[in-house]
Amino acid sequence: MNIDINIEGLVADAVAAALAPEKLQPIIQANVEKAVKSAIDDNFGYRSPFIELCKESMAAVMPTDLGDLGRYGDLVLKTFRFALSEHQDHVLKQTITERMEQLLKPLPTRMKLSELVEQLTRHFFNCYSREGSERPTFIIEKNERGYWHLYADPKEDAGRYSQYSCAIHMAFTEDGECYSLRVDEKDDPKKMIFLGSHYGADALALNIYTGGTKIDFEEIDVDDIYYPDAYRD
User: Fold this and answer.
1) 125 and 195 housed in the same domain
2) Can you give the three-state secondary structure of the chain, one letter per residue?
3) Domain span at residue 23?
4) Rg (CA), the chain
5) Separation between Cα atoms, residue 231 and residue 233, nearest integer Å
6) Does one domain contain both 153 and 216?
């Protein structure tokens, strides 16, 4: 059996296929990109004349010793102030957000008086105006119509001479609605901004007053309420 193979024709066809535009295009593109990158590296690379020129220019404007730092001290100071301002803005926004979340935290529609006293005690415990007292002051007065008043203060014996000297005064209807609130002798609590370190108790009272949370009256022994760190025999 004779096999006639046209080697020259196969080679010619292979060369023609290899030289087809669609075959050459990616090869040419890859090599052109390589050549361009090489040219850029040569002109802007680590040891290029451009880099050397940049080094010389930077050396001319940079300080040569510590005493020469004043030449760019203003730039450093402005940069530092900007960074500090950004940090302060972030901290301020975070602080205000946290306190607003605390202030606007929803309360249940009803609470027991013992629960209110417990929460106030917890907030009083962490406030600076406690002044080392071992227990808070709570005075509860109820009249014959069922209306009642709660006087509260982080300091012990704050109402010794008058219940009106207490920091918080809340007045309730027979159904437990807070119809009047006074905090630190401020007549209009709705205008108060709680940014003090003891804002927690004030915010709680304001939430009850403005949010309509009703407090169920109950007899409790206020003389047995102490702070967690109080010394008791």
Assistant:
1) yes
2) CCCCCCHHHHHHHHHHHHCCHHHHHHHHHHHHHHHHHHHHHHHHCCCCHHHHHHHHHHHHHCCCCHHHCHHHHHHHHHHHHHHHHHHHHHHHHHHHHHHHHHHHCCCCCEEEHHHHHHHHHHHHHCCHHHCCCCCCEEEEEECCCCCEEEEEECCCCCCCCCHHHCCEEEEECCCCCEEEEEECCECCHHHCCCCCCCHHHHHHHHHHHHHCCEEECCCCCHHHCCCCCCCCC
3) 8-59
4) 40
5) 7
6) yes
Q: How many angstroms separate the CA atoms of 169 and 162, rounded?
A: 12
How many domains does the structure of the chain reveal? 3
Do both 143 and 191 map to the same domain? yes
Tell me the CB-side half-sphere exposure of residue 133, using CA atoms within 13 A.
20
Same domain, 188 and 126: yes
Give this prediction's pTM: 0.53
Pairing of strands 110-112, 214-216: parallel
Instruction: Tell whether 211 and 142 lie within a shared domain.
Output: yes
Give the pLDDT confidence of 78-111 residue by residue, as tens digits: 665 666 677 677 776 677 667 666 655 678 899 9
Dump pLDDT digits (tens) for 110-134.
999 999 999 999 999 887 777 888 9
Considering the domain architecture, whether residues 130 and 208 belong to the same structural domain is answered as yes
CA distances from 137 to 21, 215, 231 (A): 94, 19, 17
**160 assigned to some structural domain:** yes
Tell me, yes or no, whether 116 and 95 share the same domain: no
